[in-house]
Amino acid sequence: MPGRNGPPIVAKLLPKVMGSMLDFGSKNSLRSYRMYISGDMMVFDDIKDIPKRYPGVDLALLHLDGTRLLGLVTVTMNAKEGVRIMQIIIPNKAIPIHYNDYDVFKSPLSDFKEEIERAGLQEKIIYLEHGDTYKFDSEENNQSG
């Protein structure tokens, strides 16, 4: 999946990144559950190709840390970009992750919650505390066919 840290010029100086798409299935079906994992990245034009190539995302795991380089340039997805990627990918459900693991992260979960409510997407979000788990069943949760 496409991924990029920061604006194009800054991205050339930073490590390469990527997202991942996982398709789960069984012997009885080609695909019964689709999971998108954003990775540490920004939203940019190439992200718009993801739903064209991989429609019907059941669950998106969104890295929402808002890391800023030298305190000036945002190089990873923040709360507003988290909403933007949800509007592009259109997952059935999403779980925000990787938002408070390091001191350099500048986009707290509370910012994401506010942006999600403004966008009217709160019914699509699953919030987990550290140590919580989310169980999905690829056979029962096939919402995207």
TrEMBL record:
Organism expressing this protein natively: Nitrosospira multiformis
InterPro entries with a match to the protein in the record: RibonucZ/Hydroxyglut_hydro, UPF0173_UPF0282_UlaG_hydrolase
Superkingdom: Bacteria
Protein name: Uncharacterized protein
The organism's taxonomic lineage, starting at the top: Bacteria, Pseudomonadati, Pseudomonadota, Betaproteobacteria, Nitrosomonadales
